[in-house]
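ok here's the first one, seq then struct tokens
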Amino acid sequence: MSTQIDIKEVHWLLDIVQCIDVGVIVLDRQYQVEVWNSFMENHSGMGPDEVHGRPLFELFPEIDETWLRRKVDTVVQLGTRAFSLWEQRPYLVHFKSYQPITGQEDFMYQNVTLLPLSGASGEVDHLCLVIYDMTAAATHKKQLTASQVAH
């Protein structure tokens, strides 16, 4: 079994990260952006060249920095992933909602997964944030709740 990385596989993985319909941000331990996929570019209006090396909290001042730092510290210390659900915290970054069918929400509801990324030393030296658009599910749940209250 070869330990050499196949360059074709790297290209496939990069294509997948760029094309999937979730936000992918990789941060170093100083919260500076290293990776920014097309979902993030499309919803933020900022390209990878604009954000690379910049602190996440500078790009998105609406982020609750204390809360995110606490979450990240736990992920780094335990080496396990963590989650944030839209029901607990509606969004990490404030994006406009682009729901073509309903169009009822002003912003994108988001679930977020925080993944620890270890370097060659085995230490967690980067973090991956995966942002899922949960606006449709949030809209349906709110409508269901409203209809139950009305009856």
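and now the second one, same deal
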Amino acid sequence: MDALLLSLLLGLSHGIEPDHVATARLLKSKRKIVEFALSHSAGFLIIAIPIVIFIGSNRIFEFIADIIGIIFSILLLIEVILDKEFDIGANKAGLLQGAFVITPTKVLVIVLASTDYNLIYSAEIILAFILASIFSISALAILNLIPKRIYKFVDGIIAIVTITYLISLLVIN
């Protein structure tokens, strides 16, 4: 599977996580929901690009990033199996949450963007994640849809595909 497509799927999955939908639904107005989605994504962009440049320009860090990606993919799978969400870091809405809350989906996107590093393609991977996140946060909240269990199914599939993808990269390199 292509890293760009995988990043889109990760973004859709990230956006439908219950904490994002709940936060967006609390905001009540469509404008505030979209502002939340945009600021949340901007926060991730601010932190992701420098990390990707740092990791991607060094083969040893790229290898370590792939290992970390596999670990976080397993963590994502454990979330699905145990029906428990792991967030590491600050727990504020918007820009701070986007920048400082570390979730498996965010780590996986950074790993994907760092692998076979090319600044333009890496930026496309991050932007695909961000656009899919903005879309899913905004659409689900604006349409008043609260996913019950679908995000767990999506996360499980994404975790398995990502583990397979990253292991294949390690074997090929």
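notes on #2: DSSP finds eight helices and no strands in the chain. Residues 30-56 form the longest helix (27 residues).
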